[in-house]
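Example record for the data management plan.
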Amino acid sequence: MIAHLQRASNTAGLLGYLYGPGERGDQSNPRLVGGDCHGAPIDLLTHADTLPYLAHALDAPVERLGTRAPERPVWVCSVRSDPRHRDLTDAQWAEVARRVAAVTVAPGGDPDACRWVALRNQPRQVHVVATLAREDGSLHNAYRDAFRLQTECQRIAAELGHLLASPQPTPPVPEKSMPITVTIAAEPSGSVVARGGDSLAKSLLIHAGFAYASDWHGPRHRLPTSMGREQQAAVASHAAEMLRAARYAVELDPALDTAPADSQSLGGQLLAVTDRIQGAQSGAELAEAVAPLLHVEHGVVERVREALEAAGEQVTDLDDEAYQLADRFGFASEFLTAAQGELVGADEELRQVAVPAHEQAAARSAAVHDARSAALSTSPAAIQASAPRNTTPSTPSTVAPAGPARDSAPRAR
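Corresponding structural encoding:
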């Protein structure tokens, strides 16, 4: 079961489209199967000539907002079931719509929840239409709706028996705060040696062609000296590529690097950003390194979101039967939208990371001292006014600076 979220600006126009034949003429028998408009008689407003009244029942909280109303106040969620299973009845689809609304726009027991209706016009799907204005005058925050919908749709599909038996979950691998470093270097003896890494890194090295050795030099992985230098470089570069893909920090001897990262490619640019992030020594440096990812309009996350959304639309244009694949791209795009919402203001918070408290206190103390010194210092105009007037020329005296003398020589470290 897949849910696809959209936003619209005109409720009456959207309802007219859903109750019409559709762009491809595949919509028929439109009917209302559920909803909650806080007492409005929506059951009586389901005919084509009464759709404006149904739209008004949904739009009433939006109209009360006046100029505070959003440009696209209509929230649309289309839920499709797996075509390999039988279609659900209207009553079952009504329950699906109620559960979808309960985890998003209309939580159970909320007297100020958004108004919504659910209607069907095609087999194996239901459309939930809601307006984002709540009864108390606030707006529904929709930035986590995609996550909630995915969880609820999987739960419903599991209850209906539409999901295949999932394999036994593997134990989670604890995240490491710092990447593990693997060093691959050529030795004077002619062999290529790799040191460092955990069990996964060692498996990748063996898969690439390294052999494990343990002697008085210590445990390591090495390539035989009988292997030619070009072949050694090719194997070492391939091993480094696999290790980097597994998020290991690899120090590869430049003489063995036969496939350096292309700094002009997208992957090369993102790899450079990752290197900057891993090499950040302070929160300010980390914020600068992450900035290309999180920029609201031109960041990498936003550009990837746009690309995924465009890919889903292109799939629909090429094959209207591949709606499930298009929905997967749309879902991924919505996840990135939610991720952007989660990271709002993160750049400012990063700048406060790893700043010791005594440094912050010292900075504040220095600022207060500078401000106090500036307030207590005598202005040059006041000094000139208080000096005795003398018509005879005199040798100008040197006035010592108010602050402590600075040594022009560089400070010893």
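Summary line stored alongside the record: The chain has three domains: 2-160, 181-260, 270-350.
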